Amino acid sequence: MRLTKLVNDPAAIVPEMLEGYAAAYRDIISYEDGLIVRAEPKAHGKVGLVIGNGSGHEPAMVGLVGPGLFDVNVPGPIFTAPGPAKLLAGMTAANRGAGVLVCVSNHAGDVLNAEMAFEDAEDEGVTDIEMVILYDDIASAPKEQMEDRRGSAGLFFVWKMVGALAESGESLAACKAMAEKVRDNTRTLSATLSSCAHPVTREPLAEMADGEMIIGVGVHGESGRGATPVTSADAAVDTMMEQLLDDLPHGAGDEVCVLVNNAGSLTTMELAILYRRVDQILANREIGVHRAWLGAYATTQDSAGFAISLCRVDSEMKSLYDAPAVGAGVHFVGGGSQ
Amino acid sequence: MTIAFDRMSGPDWQHLMLAAADAIDANVDELSRLDAAVGDGDHGVNVATAMAYTRRHLEELSDPTPADVFKVVAKGFLDEMGGAAGALFGSLFKAVARSFQGALVTTAGQLADAIEAGCEIVTRRGNSQPGDKTMVDALVPAASAGRAAATDEATSGEVLDAMALAARQGAESTVDMTASRGRARYAEERSIGVQDAGATSVALILEAWAAANTVRSTE
Q1: Does the annotation mark A250 as catalytic?
Q2: Which of A126, A269, A302, B40 is the most core-located residue (most Cβ within 10 A)?
Q3: Average pLDDT, integer, range B111-117
Q4: 3-state secondary structure of A332
Q5: What's the ipTM?
Q6: Alpha helices in chain A (DSSP H)
Q7: If DSSP codes are grouped into helix, strand and coil, which group holds residue A186?
């Protein structure tokens, strides 16, 4: 784990990172008044999509603003959700006259601040806003307490599909319903081999012994089910896929989109070897793979970890996933290639 | 009787809140260390960020009302700190500001009312009870102690002293608890043996108020 970060003033990490992103991808995004907005706003009369999040997980979510994705990202401090005033400003910036959907990854800070932003919006007479609370991490609560589960890498599928739906001009109610549908068909499980240092305090988030792995960690390194020795990539995937497919039973003939997310410092080589086993297991169960994506979508600095996310898809979801989309961190050219 | 003297003006609250900011600054590393056991180890840095905003803006206020002071504090926590802690501390101070609204000076009874109102919103919004190992473990006993101390003859200083003592005892009681709310709940048994960072911040703030008020009263 690297304790030293190549940064300037620790207090300026977030704004300097956002300035850099916006400068590098100025054709896609712009950094204005603390918000990441599209360089070219969505056409009037379409639903606006907003997400707030703690920083430090790049390219999430600054890299998910653009055509076919979010309209506005409200970045908070490192690993800390933004406050209600910033969220409300983000909601206002995303309004294109057809309502705004605020997507909330289920973490205490994100939910509390979104609730307060909605109370403030109500006081100010803002209407036509909806909130959807999203979760996918099967390690964070049992199936019977689905709504207590936290949001993690699999929300990628929500952003992609709802982003496409909003772009197509569908209503606020339809966008919210689709977000819930994708959520309800998505399951994620994460594992890590090493934690990371907090960029500001430079203290490790957790200490792990070399050669050990923890399955079930959260996006901030929240510990899962205890460390186990690492044996092989296949063994790790076998354990995780069994739990994923047990949590949301899939039948022969079902189709899924798959994400193997890099939490920071795994290699692409490792991701590919992990995915190889995922693909074998799905084939053995006669579950079809519509698309798979390997890469760093949501990171926790340089943690050596990964997440496997499965999203069961129908024909509508498949076409939404395949629609073109461009962000600073992802690029869907249409037809599913990225 | 020192009732007239005892009433606290906006500038008095300004003075107490700046003392609280100093107390947090002096304990940044300790608060982060407590948070590191169960979370991402930045509670101290984050509270200090809210307090830096508070200090900067409080120093600009001339002759504020008590509510003006707490509006600034609430904004510091809500807008600058963020996260669950920012929302909850911000809600606490927003409720205090609302409770003090319209008053040029606050009495011992109004002080007890304000902290009770703040405590009520924090427990409701955070959906937390004493025993969950959160800031509520310091705040609920502080609010009760403040209410009990706020008799007709009581001074604000007596109410502040009672709240500070109860908050410190409440914060210390979290050492043996298991976290069950927020991100810390995933730490489970790892959280036992470590005092809750949020409860510790509550105790530091209330203790700083009590100490600064004692100095103010004897000046």
Answers
A1: no
A2: B40
A3: 98
A4: strand
A5: 0.89
A6: 13-24, 84-94, 108-123, 155-167, 172-184, 233-247, 268-284, 315-322
A7: strand
